[in-house]
């Protein structure tokens, strides 16, 4: 990969810079902003029964709150301690006691009346549980009883009817690897993970464009780059420590650009609690915000390139880095011809931005000697997500923003474990260190593992859920579903369908640390609940991979332990030994965390070095400081691919709005507050531009119904600076509007955007029969035709 090594953390300037202050009023008094001191005190109170252990987790463990890679209180980007409320909110998952028995064994209807937040607050799962068909409460089970129930089902069915899923909740590389190996040993390729609904298009697009499946640069490259672009990413909300990197970048003169339909307040200004100057007076972050239509990014990027090619006609070399393009890319002429055919009217209508605004951004990048592009689910969670990311790669390649300092492509990860999931082979397209479709990778892994891999293509998790409703005679009908964490009721589109699918499975296994609403659903034969350890409890410690490819060791931390909880990797290994005892004895391994790391180093060549991680603070970065260093890509010819990308068809029916989902005060689907601290929005507030509300005679706070043919959502009007013609609703509250079964064709991510109608609640309910709603939708779609 790269030859240059990461040089370690740098120091922030000691003198303040009043030009960056939001206000001279201390602590942002009177402004809508997070109350970090108050929230920290609240979290300390929540953990008062286990404060010494909580302190050790924070100071010794690797953060399980996001993928920035904070080990203890320190990282590889900036000197000094880092701590954020996201990590603090997740902390209680590690310190809370076990659920009281009278609650754990309450009637299932009583438990089902609780929200996931209320269930989470009950405490940790202390021992295995079983609830068989027809039973109204969970019964305590021994580990042997629980595991033998699962193993018996696995032996009795076609492996194509068995599937595994792993969330990113604190899961370590060791657990991902063990799950990937066990699934294949048991004969199934149906294994998937949380990246399927987050960043699968990032990996797919980057591989086809530049030959890698991870961030090509580091967080340090933000600091001093000419332009730092956040595309469909609200890093200040989802990865709060990143605001410290943004502050450092601003102090170096970096321009920060945000591209998003909603003018996110947290990306405009932020009070960074670990920087005294910022904590007092706030920091202005974004220099400019380009408000695109939902799904309008491809048109916007085509417009930027169209400007560049026009600039080139007037003054060759004024926009394109021809030396880089000629030496390190293919497809320049085809891309140029494709972009030349785009007409400005279509690009403006699709993107929602004027030609002048696109020209401004194009000229900014043309003048820049360096740039880093950061993106998240605003680009990926579309049925054209892979094309979105390849467009970003096109911009970087045309300007030579790749493989050198202060340049790069960064899909910023939201969870501390998710980067390693596919790299450990825990998805249907991957093997450790390779792809399941690659004959050489298959042969290499078969030789290492000592057994033949299943030859058929596994299913992505969305299709796995659909398979639960197949007829009985179908070999892929889902009969055994084994999930490590996750709550599909609150993460996947169309919750009603998900409920139907989960209850149609014969045996459903929930390997987790807490209960959630999906755990309580019935199954045709049995629901088995297995208590898992957190990463801080696992014997031998564990590793996780950050967004910037840093592989961190998180040690086992002394403290209280929960009942009969076991390490996740050990549970998978136990299952394999019960289902196929002879094969497991010969081929499984996975006897300890250290042994798994030794095997990972052999199975995934880029992870060679993981076997040496043993102590707190141990870390290495695979691939060097920059992937594709000096422009050399790990593709067959060493060159990046410039790809002509067609505009997606985004014509909205007349009277509809484009809708997307956003996060509030939450970690994944774990909601920590009903009110967003950045804009005071309630979970059921619908963000709408005042100019769109006026023709509908909507006033702020008024009850409305948002609906389409897939579902409806009751909410209230919240005026916001969002692109006209677009609205935003919170996730997962708005998932009822999103259709099931719509997947990105290259990466399999579900679509999380659609078109909806907004009506006053009184109007909707005055004509609330289904025929009216269906007729209304049909009429509007006919009008649009």
UniProtKB/TrEMBL annotation:
Pfam families: Molybdopterin, Molydop_binding. It comes from the Bacteria. Residues 659-755 form the Molybdopterin dinucleotide-binding domain. Keywords: Iron, Iron-sulfur, Metal-binding. The keyword Endoplasmic reticulum does not apply. Residues 124-577 form the Molybdopterin oxidoreductase domain. The keyword Nucleus does not apply. This is FdhF/YdeP family oxidoreductase. It comes from Paenibacillus anseongense. The lineage of its organism: Bacteria, Bacillati, Bacillota, Bacilli, Bacillales.
